[in-house]
Amino acid sequence: MQAKEIRPYYQKHCRFRMRSGKVVYGVIWSDVHQHYFASHREFEAYQSAIQNRDKATCQRLRFPVDLNEVVAAERLN
Question: What pTM was estimated for this model as a whole?
Fold first, then answer.
């Protein structure tokens, strides 16, 4: 998927189907240069770490994701 296709799913709990056929549940978001993935629970902890300015926890809770590997997305809530 391209960034403009996945933008409606940013920061929303979703089911993502990957090119490999694997289905993952979580949240995708972006900063200026990169897209990231985390489970719903990890994303909530990530947001809390941002508010607390805990950079080490932020780094531990986000995983870079290549949007070209995402073939489908479905919002869960």
Answer: 0.89
Where do the domains of the chain lie, and which CATH numbers do they carry? 3-75 (2.30.30.100)
Alpha-carbon distances of 13 from 18, 22, 26, 37, 47, rounded to whole Å? 16, 17, 5, 11, 14
One-letter amino acid identity for 77?
N
Q: How far apart, in whole angstroms, are the C-alpha atoms of residue 11 and residue 31?
A: 12
- Among 27, 63, 55, 23, which residue's Cα sits nearest to residue 43? 27
Q: What is the pLDDT of residues 2-46, one digit of tens each?
A: 989 999 999 999 999 999 999 999 999 998 889 999 999 999 999
